[in-house]
Amino acid sequence: MVKEKLLRCKEIIKGAAVKSGISEGDVSIVAVTKGVSLPLMCEAVDEGVLDIGENRIQEALPKYVSLNDYSANLDRKINWHMVGHLQSNKVKAAVKMFDLIHSVDSFSLAEEINKASENLGKVQDILMQVNVSGEESKFGFSPEDAEKNVDKIKSLRNISLKGLMTIAPFSDNPQDSRVFFKSLREMRDRLNKARGYDMKILSMGMTDDFEVAVEEGSNMLRLGRALFKEEGL
Ligand SMILES: *Cc1c(COP(=O)(O)O)cnc(C)c1O
Hints:
Layout: H1 2-20, E1 28-32, H2 38-46, E2 51-54, H3 57-73, E3 79-82, H4 91-97, E4 100-104, H5 107-120, E5 124-129, H6 143-154, E6 159-165, H7 178-195, E7 201-203, H8 210-215, E8 220-223, H9 225-228
Parallel strand pairs: 1-2, 1-8, 2-3, 3-4, 4-5, 5-6, 6-7
Helix pairs in contact: 2-3, 4-5
Pyridoxal-5'-phosphate (PLP) is lined by residues 32, 34, 55, 83-84, 167, 206-208, 222-226.
């Protein structure tokens, strides 16, 4: 089941990657498994999906232990992604678990992650979440605040800033997301150029708009329903 859905997603990615000029293999798929059962997650691992995203620590924790056991038996290592809003009282647990935190949405959160990472002797990879659309209901730096805070975040020694993440506003038409994805890509390119940074990751595109995201240069998709929902895409 997951197998067919994954193949279908990869076909779509392949077609879209031609348009953005990045190679299909450079687009990684993070399987977002909130509300997804362990057997389905194991199915994804069987198909070679080794990037797993979760929204909430509490839900992630038991699955983290079980799926790591499962994949260790296959000699595979899972990369764990935190894609949901992170509360400060969960920072310590998050730094222990996750390989990449996508949802860093304030400088104070970055500072807390830095501190927790230092205590663990770890350098935590993160993305800055940018609220490109300015929707009030969404977390994330405003584009202006992202530009203002990027140097400060870069200067934290136990954090490594790998790129930017955004969530496009909900819409029935995936084309509506295009302008926001383009804007995030331009922001990354501008920051890299102006400051000599090497942020590579653009985490953008979900089930409803990942084709458009890849066309606009996304190299990290966060896919939930596309991989796990019964009715398919
Ligand atoms: C749930 C979720 C996803 C996956 O959503 P789908 O539309 O099911 O692909 C991606 N990113 C975040 C932050 C999410 O919360």
